[in-house]
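Dear Dr. H.,

I hope your travels went smoothly. While you were away I took the liberty of generating a structure for the chain from your last submission, since the lab meeting agenda had it listed for discussion. I wanted you to have the full record in hand beforehand rather than looking at slides cold. The sequence, exactly as received, is reproduced here:
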Amino acid sequence: MVSEGTYPHAMGGVSVWCDQLIRGLSDYRWTMVALTVDGTERQVWPSPENLDEIRSIPLWGPRPMGRGRPGRSFKPAYEAFLAGLLTPVQPRSDTAAVGRSRFLLSLRGLYEYAASGGDLPDALTSNQALTAMMDAWHAIRADSAEHLTLDDAYQAAWLIAHMLRPLAAEPVRADVVHASMNGLATLVGMTAKWRYGTPMVLSEHGIYLRERYISYLEDDAPHAVKVLVLSFFRALAGAAYLITDTLAPHSSYNRRWQLHNGADPERMWTMYNGVSPDEFVAAPGEPAVPTVSFMGRIDPLKDILTLIRAFALVREKVPDAVLKIYGGTPKGNEAYRDACLNLIEELGLVGVASLEGRVDTPVNAYHAGSLVALTSISEGFPYTVVEAMACGRTVVATNVGGVSEAVADTGIVVPPRDVPAIADACVQLLTDHDRRRRLGVAARQRVLEYFTLERSLSAYRQVYEELVLDAGDSGSRLAVPRPRQHSPVRETNTGGHHRVPRARGRARVHRATAGAG
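The corresponding predicted structure, in token form, is as follows:
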């Protein structure tokens, strides 16, 4: 399993999913490959018995000094890399398909340069590489008014060199590589496929590329640097869709994004997250006062500031209402936490709106609310929603990612960042006791029918074992996977697309590699 900035060093939905998968498929042996900052991160998840190894690939830690001019084989691969980076294309065009193939081949060329002893990070920031980047920029983007300075080129090259470090790491040996998200994690799968022919599964909880764009909206980097870095993420995402044997979006919303960006529908299985109904038990009652509960990390993507503003409007209609915000603050998000506290004070909500911090179990957070709110601006298929529903709580949630697929008619879905709409939905549910309780019962029933952990684990087992058997049937594995004939897509009541695998015998996946949430 391959992770980037999540399991086993951070909490969050992706980490929950990783732990569920490893523990749930206890007859498999696992290796965790974690893309980390500098390799010193503290492990916050206890290792399951079947997790044999945790391997860290630090993206930003120190490394030995380079060895001078890059070798000859670097130049053609890097020129193809720059062409893929800088050539603007429409995602669904034939030109884009060709561009993805060329970019994937350029990544393989860079990997082979590193595998043959070349210093890839040093080569990417060498004078020759910077000159090539500036020449390619002004040749390919001749009509652009934006000028690429030497400083811009170095900033972008330095960032990309760090992000491509997995290409220079020793490839992992496994029967299957499972990347928990698109982007940098897929580089680990690519190197294993190129070295050993290992099949790869790619999950997407949220849309990695979309979230990279969102994260750069407020970044103060020069425009040219943003263009280069975001173009890198775009090209990498497309290359990953091309090389992946099985693509597992976690909602139909994600599936549509992936298709738009070049994914092959014949390799796609929509795989919803699941929870254990025995762990997330129905709440025995409701709190004594009307309570809006939030459960999640303190993060700008969760848009807690909007939730606080909406709650101020709720108090105008429900004067005794309280807001409880449960969840920890990841390192680097302290300023956002402080902004939330300042807004609570500014709106006169001290004592009725509170940041409760981490909670021993999320069940307590869901049971503490009359309803559960989620005001994110980006999500995949959030555990918060299905966990709250399993606890018999109706939700007010923003229409992002697979939220509407999960909630259906058991809660209220509103536009993101729409303060009045969020407030109105909360008021409706807090003041209509019969409706709130009826929707809570329906929410748990929906989880029992569609979103159980048992159902999710069974689907992944089928995917892994079909991949292993297909690899054995083929006799050899290709660098770019051959098209595989699946049985027809079945449309489900949840709006997703689940493929029904061919019935086959058991295969043991001895070791899988897996692991931003």
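Two observations you may find useful: Residues 287 and 368 are 6 Å apart (CA to CA). The chain is about 45% helix and 15% strand.

With kind regards,
E. W.
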